[in-house]
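Lecture notes, unit on binding sites. The following record was shown on slide 14. It pairs a sequence with oxaloacetate ion.
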Amino acid sequence: MKIGLIGGGNIGKFLLQSINTHKLLEDSKIIGIYTRNPKSAQQLAAEYDTAVFENIESLLQSDVDLVVEAATVEVVKQNASSILSSGKDLVLSSVGALSDLNFIQSLEKICKVNGKKIHLPSGAIGGLDVLKAAKSNGELESVSIITRKPPQALPGAPLDKEQVLFEGSAREAIELFPKNINVSIILSLAGLGPEKTRVKIISDPSIKKNSHCIEAKGSFGDLSIKVENDPMPNNPKTSYLAALSVLSSLKNKDAVIQVG
Ligand SMILES: NC(=O)C1=CN([C@@H]2O[C@H](COP(=O)(O)OP(=O)(O)OC[C@H]3O[C@@H](n4cnc5c(N)ncnc54)[C@H](OP(=O)(O)O)[C@@H]3O)[C@@H](O)[C@H]2O)C=CC1
Ligand SMILES: O=C([O-])CC(=O)C(=O)O
């Protein structure tokens, strides 16, 4: 599989290392990278044996089979349609871009017309399998997530005391914290949607890990799950698990035996 990568930050570099250097994905290679800063694209290309796409247009015209986005919510909003229309599958890190039902429906249409797929990794959380099963008979009643991060990972957080920075719906949360709460949107997509998914974001100077506590109720019973994530070394906003989940999506996307 020929992969094109957008974004050369934490997740992008992790994928370059895992796929191009350590060859963890059989018969696959990241053949080119597009990122905002051309200098850093050149450096990454030299270090990880890949090419540079000067712009999105050249990525679209290339022969990559699949594009992995590891950039921003905005990049997905601007480019997802043209990537799928150009005949490439898409794997998203910035799943927060899919908080708008109309946008999802328009992408779905493009996928159907072009025979393409969008893969949404579970990111920095777990429990999506439970929510999908629980809502299959329409009897999932409530879903919430409490995200707790160190203040260095959150915009506008005080360094000296714990503070609730946000409480509301997943739709509002991703508008205000697009780099921090993509998890609430993947949770919404598996469960009750972005209006009905309750979110609390807490800045906590006493912790080093990014934790996500998910609770759900329905006719199945109760779910309570806590993930305590080590952050990526260079970006405390991003949990290591988020990067691993993108690699896992790539590994499993064509598996003949699907788990979960
Ligand atoms: N689903 C989930 O659970 C999680 C999702 N995420 C999301 O995944 C995405 C990637 O995360 P991470 O790797 O940590 O982020 P980083 O900030 O480390 O890297 C982002 C990369 O995207 C590039 N970029 C920014 N804007 C553009 C643009 N307009 N066009 C092209 N490239 C651009 C940046 O370039 P430059 O270096 O020039 O700024 C940088 O290389 C983020 O949106 C993040 O919020 C993160 C964690 C969990
Ligand atoms: O990495 C995390 O713990 C969560 C995160 O940043 C996001 O969902 O955007």
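Take-home: Residues 98 and 104 are 6 Å apart (CA to CA).
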